[in-house]
Amino acid sequence: MMIHEITEKVGRYKSRKRIGRGEGSGQGGTAGRGHKGAGSRAGFSRRASYEGGQLPWFQRYPKRGFSNADFRKNYHVVNLKVLEERFDAGTTIDVALLAANRVVRDTNLPLKVLGEGELTKKFTITAAKFSTAARKKIEEAGGTATDV
Fold first, then answer.
1. With b meaning 16 or more CB within 10 Å and e meaning fewer, what string describes 112-126?
2. Residue 76 exposed, middle or buried by CB count within 10 Å (0-12, 13-18, 19+)
3. pLDDT tens, 43-82?
4. Helix or strand (DSSP H, E) at 92
5. How far is it, in rounded angstroms, from Cα 51 to Cα 37?
C-alpha cells in the first residue's frame, strides 16, 4: 500500500477539535485553558509586550543621557533656485506668499532661505533666517534680505 492510497481513503481534511464538549471528548473540563486566572476567562487578550508579570525589557534598561530634540526649532526651508523659477523680478517674498503659491504647506513655521541655485532676479525677501550664501546671492542680485 502506498501513501497516496492511504490518503485517498482517509480524506483530505481533518475534522476540527470540539473543545469543551464533555469529559469523553478529552477536551472537556477546563477545555485546555488551565485553572483560574485571566487566561481562562472569555475575552482575555494580553498586549504584545507582556512578559507574564516579569519587568518588561524596556523598563530593565538604564535611562542615560539627555536629548535636545524637544528644544529644536523647525523651519520651512526654501532654496533660491525655487524662488528664481516661481516668481517674477521685483516681488516681495514672505511666508504668506509662499504658502499662497503652495511652495510651503502653511504659515505655521518660520521661513529659512538657503543658497542653492543661482539668482538673477531682484527680490525683497522677508524670512526668519538666511544662510550666509543665500544672503550674499540675494544682495549680489540687487535684492534685499530682511530678518523678521
1. bbbbeeebebebebb
2. buried
3. 999 899 999 889 999 999 998 999 999 999 999 999 999 9
4. strand 92-93
5. 15
Residue type, position 70, single letter: D
Fill in the amino acid letter for 107: T
Question: Who's near 131: CB < 8 A, 6+ residues apart?
Answer: 112, 113, 114, 115
What pLDDT does residue 11 have?
A: 77
H helices of the chain, where? 3-10, 57-60, 80-86, 95-100, 132-140
Tens-place pLDDT, residues 125-141: 999 999 999 999 999 99
pLDDT digits (tens, 9 = 90+) for 23-36: 999 999 999 999 99
What helix, strand, coil percent values describe the chain, rounded to 5?
Answer: 30, 15, 55
**Nine-digit cell at 143?**
535684492
Residue 88 C-alpha cell reads as: 517674477
Measured CA to CA in angstroms, residue 11 lies from 2, 7, 70 at distances of 15, 6, 64
